[in-house]
Amino acid sequence: MLLLAPMEGLLDATLRDVLTRTGGIDRCVSEFIRVTDMLLPERVFVRVVPELLNDGRTRAGVPVRAQLLGSDPSCLAENAERLASLGPHGIDLNFGCPAKTVNQSRGGAVLLDEPELIGRIVSAVRRAVPAHVPVSAKMRLGFNDDARAEECAHAIAEAGADELVIHARTKAHGYRPPAYWDRLAEVRQSLPPHLRLPVIANGEIWTVADAVRCREVTGCEHLMIGRGMVTDPGLALAIKGQGGVAWEVLPPLLQIFWQQVSARVERRHRAGRLKQWLNYLRKRYPEAQQAYDDLRLFNEPAHIEAWLQRQTAPQACAA
Question: Are 96 and 138 in contact (CB under 8 A)?
Fold first, then answer.
């Protein structure tokens, strides 16, 4: 199974929609919904996870698991109960976000120094939602170091989680390579038989070779991919031995992406979102480098739209 990772500020509902159209992804996880001290209205969940209006699936039919972030077990449980009523394909709990502003408000990776609290959060959410709704968690190896990685994984498993994703770096590592797959393997192997649950490996999977090596080192059958899929939308297909995605497939997807960005993003930020994705794509496709160069100095939507129309227009027949 291949999962599409959540990435705040990058891999949102718009990019989930476009990337799942290429095939190969079995499930997505949404970017986090922050829970503090109140029961959120339904519109907040739908704003972050618009797939809730489509049976919890992207337009391509790929199920989406909604992610919550916070530190109050009772409040998270209350919000999870409401969220579960909206029909997501499970609820995920974020113990991995490395963002400073999130960590300062006791969310994300900072909780990895408090395994007991992590256990109480997972337990409260598991009790609050119907038994048929999966509850999973995503963690890093730790905050400043990985000394408590096993404790955190055990707490999550003991609390009744159905699945655990481990990003094979600490918060201090950020996104710098390498990912410590061997350490992830130790954490997975430390779970006693009565606490065994599916463990999904995440971090530094950019190629088919990376996926093969990650599975060998970690012992994890299932993988979660983030930046690798943003860079190469055909990566999941390639990992499954179904080829990849040629550049010629991408201009229509860029057009769809732009249309959705235009509907959801303020005018002044729209060009930036397209350039952000092209910046990733140019690591894989030479044509994306040319596209990035063409658009780098332009921010007016009209200019972007004219460029996209030229890319997707049928080629004129030769005389």
Answer: yes
CATH of domain 247-312: 1.20.225.30
pLDDT given at position 298: 87
**Structure pTM?**
0.94
Residue 314's pLDDT is 65
Q: Which of 67-71, 261-265, 275-279 has the lowest mean pLDDT?
A: 261-265
Span 273-293, average pLDDT? 96
Domain ranges for the chain:
2-239, 247-312
Catalytic residue among 97, 152, 214, 220: 97
What per-residue confidence (pLDDT) applies to 104? 81
Report CA-CA distances (Å) from 199 to 7, 74, 191, 283.
Answer: 19, 26, 10, 29
Would you state the CATH architecture of domain 2-239?
Alpha-Beta Barrel (3.20)
Alpha-carbon Rg for the chain in angstroms: 20
Pairing, β 91-95 against β 64-69: parallel
CA distances 260 to 149, 175, 255, 270, 319, Å, are: 39, 28, 9, 10, 37
In this predicted model, what pLDDT tens digit does every residue of 34-69 receive, in sequence order? 999 999 999 999 999 999 999 999 999 999 999 999
Q: Say how far apart CA 170 and CA 149 lie, in whole Å.
A: 9
Query: In this structure, what DSSP letter does residue 5 have?
Result: P
75 is catalytic: no
